[in-house]
Amino acid sequence: MIKVAQAQNRSPELPWIAQGQALPPPVFAWGASSPAPGLLAASGDLSSERLMEAYSQGIFPWFSNGQPVLWWSPDPRMVLMTQQFRLHRSLRKSLHRWSLTPGFELCFDRDFAQVIRRCASSSRNGQNDTWILPQMVEAYEDLHRSGFAHSSEVWVQGQLVAGLYFVSLGRAIFGESMFTTITDGSKMALASLVSVCLQHGIHTIDCQQNTGHMASLGAREMPRREFLLDMAQALGAPGLDWPEQSLNWPALQSLAGFE
Q: Are 191 and 217 in contact (CB under 8 A)?
């Protein structure tokens, strides 16, 4: 066990997971009154096998430089229901305008390594450093080579200008991070991912924790128990051949409120 500093009262104990030892079930994650709600365990290892174990239970890693690998399963969970994705008028205009630009492409898995590295190096409001450390990059690249981590990408005239990466187990989709160098770039990458999910009957994209950005795009909080039940059903479904996917405009047009 290790302890996490707490200003008042006794700090909760956090289990240390040795290599080869299973992660605890999500129900044991710290609660809302703890100093770090959703924190479940700590370990020293971060392999593609450990990531597969974690994601299959709705657990994900998130830690900073100098910390051990910290594993999380928050309650509630932030989830984007694909049918509730907000394709704002400004985003539709961006998609239309860029679609007329020579050399504009929306695709998947053309350059996963570049996407995750660009996500790691992108500046974030209120953050002085990145949580996508070299150890994380290496682990997710291994997961990509195994066929379970993917990228939705925006290219213009042979240059990667925006993208996001995600984990896909069966038809359970876990969003991770995004970057952009153009207005609405990461939103277009997300819209492309949503369109494929709609096309193939994938109902949810995990967003992990509540952020104003994802809420503005239609994501909402869901009780962890409900999230895990939905995820378990999606895990058993056949996965997609992501490199063969592309933006499905008719699927986006099916969204409520599309004008």
A: no
Q: What integer is the mean pLDDT of 22-38?
A: 95
Inter-residue contact 75 to 223 (CB < 8 Å): yes
Token pair, residue 219, equals 């994501």
Q: How far is CA 16 from CA 26, 40, 74, 195, in A?
A: 15, 10, 18, 40
pLDDT in tens, 159-202: 999 999 999 999 999 999 999 999 999 999 999 999 999 999 99
Note whether 70 and 62 are within 8 A (CB): yes
Q: Please state, in angstroms and rounded to a whole number, the distance separating the CA atoms of residues 100 and 250.
A: 17
Phi, psi for residue 229 in degrees, rounded to 5: -65, -45
> For the stretch 2-34, what's the b/e string if a residue is b when 16 or more beta carbons lie within 10 angstroms of its beta carbon?
eebeeeeeeebebbebeeeeebbebeebbeeee
Helix (H) or strand (E) holding 77: strand 77-81
- Read out DSSP for 176-217? EEEEESSTTHHHHHHHHHHHHHHHTT--EEEEES--HHHHHT
Sort strands 172-180 and 204-208 into parallel, antiparallel or unpaired. Answer: parallel
Place of tokens 């290892």: 45
211-253 tens-digit pLDDT: 899 999 999 999 999 999 999 999 999 999 999 999 999 999 8
Query: Is 71's pLDDT higher than 90?
Result: yes
Closest by CA position to 130, among listed 121, 139, 138, 117 = 121
Using omega within 30 degrees of 0 as the cis cutoff, is the peptide bond preceding 223 cis? no
First to last CA, the chain: 55
